[in-house]
Amino acid sequence: MTAIEGKWKLISSSNIAEFHDAIKTAEPFKSKLLEMKEAGKTDPDSYLEEIEVDLKENKVVRRIFVKGEKKFEMEFDIGKENEIVGPDGRTSKGRCDLVGDNRITFTNKVEDVEMQGQMEAEDKTLTVTLIGNGVTVTEIFTKI
After folding, report:
1. Distances 63 to 35, 47, 70 between C-alpha atoms, Å
2. CA dihedral defined by 10, 134, 119, 78, rounded to 10 degrees?
3. Are 29 and 87 a contacting pair, CB within 8 Å?
4. Distance between CA 104 and CA 128 in Å, rounded?
5. What's residue 28's pLDDT?
6. Which helix (H) or strand (E) segment is 91 a member of?
7. Which of 11, 90, 119, 144 is the most buried (most CB within 10 A)?
8. d(CA 40, CA 36)
9. How far apart are CA 10 and CA 139, in angstroms?
10. For residue 44, what pLDDT band results from cuts at 50, 70 and 90?
11. Are 61 and 73 within 8 A, CB to CB?
12. SS3 for 113?
């Protein structure tokens, strides 16, 4: 098992609204996402992410849960270009790489927007950093 795998609850986030404006996330998804993230700040069990790494299949799976219900799942082939449908319904192309056993880096392009980011686990803390159209969002999770 890699250090990044497991279930993580959101404890803080910054620039979420600005980021989604910058990457042109459409309504009503943007409002719903902002509502879920805000709920996670007051009720830590309301917004969870689960990361699974399958080294045999060379895949990463990221699942999002809201109030215990799975709302979204993304699967990426490690080290290859992927085409996925994001939570807002837009199709994107990107690459996901596993760096050591505690960091995932990725690049992604949806329509005319390029994004990059990483998820890095250290002890029981997961830091997610995303950059899109010059706006950076940072989310901090704790392992459960």
Report:
1. 18, 11, 7
2. 130
3. yes
4. 9
5. 80
6. strand 91-99
7. 119
8. 6
9. 7
10. low
11. yes
12. strand
